[in-house]
Design goal:
With about 300 residues, the chain is an alpha+beta fold. The protein has 9 helices and 18 strands.
């Protein structure tokens, strides 16, 4: 019988649907089912790492940040065979859920998929900075998005989660200065100012923006979107087009595929984010791990 672990953000209130899902799983698997709630930030990284070889399925209840912690724990465990990830989206944007093109969450459909073990392979992105190794399942954004997340983390302490996201975007809009970077890959080179560089495993980020239309989570490719000397006004004028899944038409908007690349700057450190989790550095080596895990398909 499969051993199933349910991981969720302990700071978030559980809805009646989540209570019902957990109850059905406990009835179905009894002692082979366990629920663990995080106690503090990044707690799920260590929990997932510790259980990477002990369970067959991990039910990830939460948003992109919760999923990111679990993925980083699993991949950093070093085990070849990893549990299937079953995503239950209760975050704000749930961008990976959209990128994976999963159906709307319904308990019975989800339970049937668990029993049938209906899965699909999924690539994982890897970032090596001058300080750390980070993995991502959806999108890593160097530049504007990293600045937004840095401000967001600061505002959350003062204003809470609800009001902070809009405030962080507004602040970054007025304060962001495009850094000068160099990007090198086997198929693309760039040297100049940068609004953002998005390493895309999935196509969607930023609460529904199609940053790389057509990107697939299982094609074994690193899909890159680079917006160079693009003004924030140009970007805002194209936001509705991006929401509809259209590419930005601009001489400084570049879309390409790569097996890996290096992005670096000689100036101050760059701000970045992986699935909403902040990181920074002056050098980023980005690559793809083809079909590294399996995702429950429902």
């Amino acid at each position: 019988m499969s051993k199933t672990l349910c991981l969720l953000n302990g700071s978030k209130k559980k809805s009646s649907v989540i209570h019902e899902l957990i109850a059905q799983c406990q009835t179905k698997w009894s002692s082979d089912f366990q629920v663990i709630e995080s106690r503090f930030e990044k707690d799920l990284v260590d929990i997932a790492r510790a259980h990477a070889s002990k369970v067959d399925i991990i039910i990830a209840i939460g948003g992109d940040g919760t999923l990111n912690e679990i993925i980083n724990g699993l991949i950093s465990s070093g085990h070849d065979e990893l549990p299937v990830i079953a995503v239950v989206p209760i975050g704000t944007g749930n961008d990976f859920f959209q990128s994976a093109r999963l159906n709307s969450f319904k308990i019975q459909t989800f339970m049937n998929a668990l029993l049938d073990k209906n899965t699909m392979p999924c690539d994982i992105g890897k970032i090596l900075t001058d300080k750390e190794i980070r993995y991502f399942i959806n999108v890593a954004d160097i530049g504007f998005g990293g600045d937004v997340v840095l401000s967001l983390n600061q505002f959350r302490k003062q204003f809470g989660p609800g009001f902070s996201y809009g405030l962080a975007i507004l602040k970054t809009f007025f304060t962001y200065k495009r850094p000068h970077v160099r990007i090198e890959s086997e198929s693309y080179q760039y040297s100049g100012e940068l609004l953002l560089a998005a390493a895309c495993n999935g196509a969607i980020f930023g609460n529904g923006l199609h940053i790389h239309p057509g990107a697939s989570i299982r094609d074994g490719k690193l899909n890159m979107t680079v917006l160079g000397k693009v003004s924030l006004l140009d970007y805002l004028l194209n936001v509705m087009k991006v929401k509809r899944g259209k590419r930005i038409k601009h001489p400084e908007a570049h879309y390409f595929e790569s097996n890996g690349l290096v992005l670096k700057t000689k100036g101050a450190k760059l701000h970045a984010e992986t699935d909403g989790e902040y990181l920074s550095g002056t050098r980023f080596e980005i690559s793809i791990l083809p079909q590294r895990i399996k995702i429950l398909l429902y």
